[in-house]
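Quick check before the chapter quiz. The format below is the same one you will see on the exam, so make sure you can read both the input and the output lines.
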Amino acid sequence: MFVRRLVLAVSLFLNMVLVYNFIWGERGAIAYKELRLRCDSLEERIRQVRESNLELSKEIRLLQSEEKYIEKTIRKRLNFVRNNEILYIFPGEINSNSVGALSNEAKN
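Here is the expected output.
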C-alpha cells in the first residue's frame, strides 16, 4: 500500500513538472507563441522588403534605358527646369525631395 502511494505521488510530481515545462519552460507553449509572432512579423518585413526591391529594380531599369523617365525624375526630384521655364515653389508645397535641391541652390 505504501509503495503504491509512493509511486502515485512520484507520478503526480513528474506530471506536474512536465506540465510546467510544457507551458512555461524555455521551449514551452508560451515561448512557442512568442517565436511564432516574431516569425510572422519577420515574414511580413521580408514581404515589404521584397516589394521595395522590386520597385527599385523597376526604377533602375527605367533609369538605365528610358531618357524620358530620367528627365522626369531629375525634374521632379531636383527641381530642374528647361530653358525658358520658370519654377514656382510655394511654401506649403515643399516636399522632402525638393528640400535638398533648394539647400544646394542656396550654397551656389
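If your answer matched, good. The mean pLDDT is 85.
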